[in-house]
Amino acid sequence: xxxxxxxxxxxxxxxxxxxxxxxxxxxxxxxxxxxxxxxxxxxxxxxxxxxxxxxxxxxxxxxxxxxxxxxxxxxxxxxxxxxxxxxxxxxxxxxxxxxx
Amino acid sequence: xxxxxxxxxxxxxxxxxxxxxxxxxxxxxxxxxxxxxxxxxxxxxxxxxxxxxxxxxxxxxxxxxxxxxxxxxxxxxxxxxxxxxxxxxxxxxxxxxxxxxxxxxxxxxxxxxxxxxxxxxxxxxxxxxxxxxxxxxxxxxxxxxxxxxxxxxxxxxxxxxxxxxxxxxxxxxxxxxxxxxxxxxxxxxxxxxxxxxxxxxxxxxxxxxxxxxxxxxxxxxxxxxxxxxxxxxxxxxxxxxxxxxxxxxxxxxxxxxxxxxxxxxxxxxxxxxxxxxxxxxxxxxxxxxxxxxxxxxxxxxxxxxxxxxxxxxxxxxxxxxxxxxxxxxxxxxxxxxxxxxxxxxxxxxxxxxxxxxxxxxxxxxxxxxxxxxxxxxxxxxxxxxxxxxxxxxxxxxxxxxxxxxxxxxxxxxxxxxxxxxxxxxxxxxxxxxxxxxxxxxxxxxxxxxxxxxxxxxxxxxxxxxxxxxxxxxxxx
Amino acid sequence: xxxxxxxxxxxxxxxxxxxxxxxxxxxxxxxxxxxxxxxxxxxxxxxxxxxxxxxxxxxxxxxxxxxxxxxxxxxxxxxxxxxxxxxxxxxxxxxxxxxxxxxxxxxxxxxxxxxxxxxxxxxxxxxxxxxxxxxxxxxxxxxxxxxxxxxxxxxxxxxxxxxxxxxxxxxxxxxxxxxxxxxxxxxxxxxxxxxxxxxxxxxxxxxxxxxxxxxxxxxxxxxxxxxxxxxxxxxxxxxxxxxxxxxxxxxxxxxxxxxxxxxxxxxxxxxxxxxxxxxxxxxxxxxxxxxxxxxxxxxxxxxxxxxxxxxxxxxxxxxxxxxxxxxxxxxxxxxxxxxxxxxxxxxxxxxxxxxxxxxxxxxxxxxxxxxxxxxxxxxxxxxxxxxxxxxxxxxxxxxxxxxxxxxxxxxxxxxxxxxxxxxxxxxxxxxxxxxxxxxxxxxxxxxxxxxxxxxxxxxxxxxxxxxxxxxxxxxxxxxx
Lengths: 100, 476, 480
Ligand SMILES: [Mg+2]
Ligand SMILES: [Zn+2]
What we know:
The complex is a heterotrimer of chains A (100), B (476) and C (480). Chain A is α+β, with helices and mostly antiparallel strands and 100 residues long. Chain A has helices spanning 5-14, 21-38, 73-77, and strands spanning 62-63, 83-84, 87-91. Helix content of chain A is 33%, strand content 9%. The interface between A and C is large, with 53 and 75 residues. Strand 3 of chain A pairs antiparallel with strand 10 of chain B. The complex binds magnesium ion and zinc ion.
């Protein structure tokens, strides 16, 4: 498969990144090369092979239902770029993402 | 042309835990913004989720109560999307291996019984809340972020809005009786999304789905689906095409309005959550939880009618909430006569709660109180008239009925050796009444009862006084 | 204080004897950092930091010893940037578990080391705070992504540093800087507070000049943690117990793929010398094969980038970090903050990961890579049935020149071919110096062990360190 400039632009929007035309050209070329490399995997016979998505040696790890207070609101607010009355303030949401 | 509707429902229940699903922040309702949050809820760099055991326990309860098959191995997944109420820009949910599959609930609609299938149910985290200002800004509160949810996805088994309504009522009741959720739509602890498509009768292929999210009440669910059925029919009849879309129901107009058109499927880029190991649900744990599962509303109803001899209508009133049903069961367990207990709960107790706009949990009356009072009535210690006074005191102040009756000297006078001479004397003193009695005037006996009651300050057992008076008068 | 000739034990003895104070040690570090400014190994140094008040040198060997922290490990109250513009003003409100444990051991934490942005890179040229130079040759890269930590050790700023390793980010810079670096088994050290890159691959580890020092630091930071469900509950052995043990009878596997022509001849020669030394000391050398080696690079880049694309979505300019100016609406905040806040390599990985997870490609890319990962793991399981360790070069070449590969991502990614398998399979792996190349640049010798068998890795590394005594050499770029 070959990724087009439009494909790259679509993935950029999904990732909430924007590129100008020059960057888009560069990324299309580089992504193409990286995906060519990734395409080598299509040659591997994985019929009946389960996927490994973790290499943990535990399962079913629970926490007891005990409420704890860690941070105060003012601590949490220290890094907020813009806030108001205890809320995080953001410019208005025009379109809710189609992805919600 | 005839059309067939296909309706599916997705219901989110907030599970009733003390802390959040992946962080120990307290679960609160109505707290100041961002006061019940921590670094995990904010998706701070470097944080990791840790699963609350009770979320699984409560989810398993609902799965058991809806006859669903609990998967032996479950896993969390990430659903990726950007939104300010979604701090990590992914929701941790169960997409590939949910908690349970293939359940059902039974409903009765238009006199017919029907099984509505549950496709699957999964555990996930709730998002925060955005408030949209009018000044070009929105405001984010993350208190709700991470509250545990159980999403119950039905099969598209419902073919009209009444069935959808019946399914929701039944599902709500079943979940409520497990105690896993508060199921309050007004507080958001139960949220309903619907989807509906129609197709001409005889056509196999399903029509295009239209979704409606966050309906406010079951009635709105029914109305919006009924409106959509008609609207989509008109679109098709006029040669149009139903758009794959999300629509919003307006309760003022009773109509639905296009919110947004869906161009193909969304791309959530689901993949297995690498920060949480798999969850292997042991059958032994499921069995343990099953033992703690409260009796279902259906089983209770059967027991109330068959064992206790309640009228179906009385059983249904008791079963309107788990609280009243539990209260009733405890009252019976404490020795209260079931029929009397049901009558008291459905009339006096409910009347009091309605008048004072209270919930059962808000009053000081306990099942033990009610059982004690019923026993006092049954064994003739107090009259039902006195009982009403005792009840008023108990429900208002939590006073023990027996102690109250004794302290106030309200014990009914049922001693023949005391009442006998009083009856003889009152008949002696009222020759006119004897005359009237002989002439068949019923009022006469009422007057004499009143005299005895006056002398005993209402404590005389009225049944006994009646009986003794009749005997005495007949002797004359 | 010359940290190049000291180690944790020697510092501990001097502190206990009172011949040096913890304040003096810290001052020595600050002076060294100042003297090596040209290396650009540090992002944030807290000049007002103080050692703990009542140091107990008996209870903890780390008491009063300055330790460097890679800047993707969160430190409460101390700016943590992951070398990114998007976090360049970020001050954490909590400590990583490893930081809490170092505090408990009374180590002095005072600064954060440079790295590739979000740990994405093999050259340390991807830092918002500028590239890092290799102390052995200033025109060469120090490797990445823990390049700052490695350069700080090699130049003698401190004796120990924490790093993180997702695909070789501890071992490769350790190799390029002529020092020791170990990535423990996945699940040995808590990731709570490690800024996530590839969650199923990331592991915090240690960079030191001497093998024993790393064992001592790992003793402190390893072990179960209530904040990380992927951390093993296995008890942590004393890693220093493996040191000084005879290698007679040690079963050592050498994969032929790791010693192929694709590896520089002088790298192979230096590595072969170590293998010969092991054999001379009685170790049993077995040539083995890892047939899936040619697939590890694409497998790794698909998995790591997929996880990264999701992990890095939280940097959206809303709750913390950089928010772009002049934003009219929410979409603007997202697009501008992220496009201005992330560097090019990070964007490339996000794009690759978003692609590999997106509708229609998930099965062919992310899932196929995850299935090949299983085959790679099986390769290793087979070898470990008959062997205690697997050895070979850490990298195919010594440190390359600054600017040499940065324009060619695929070439850059192929640098990691020898290190990423250990991450895919979750194995403990270390790099110990093997000698110098013809150009006078350090060569690393990699040792991999079975899961949770760091002991054999330490034992082998310690043997190599004792046999070649590379630690006696001083980086050529530090001429004063
Ligand atoms: Mg859903
Ligand atoms: Zn949901």
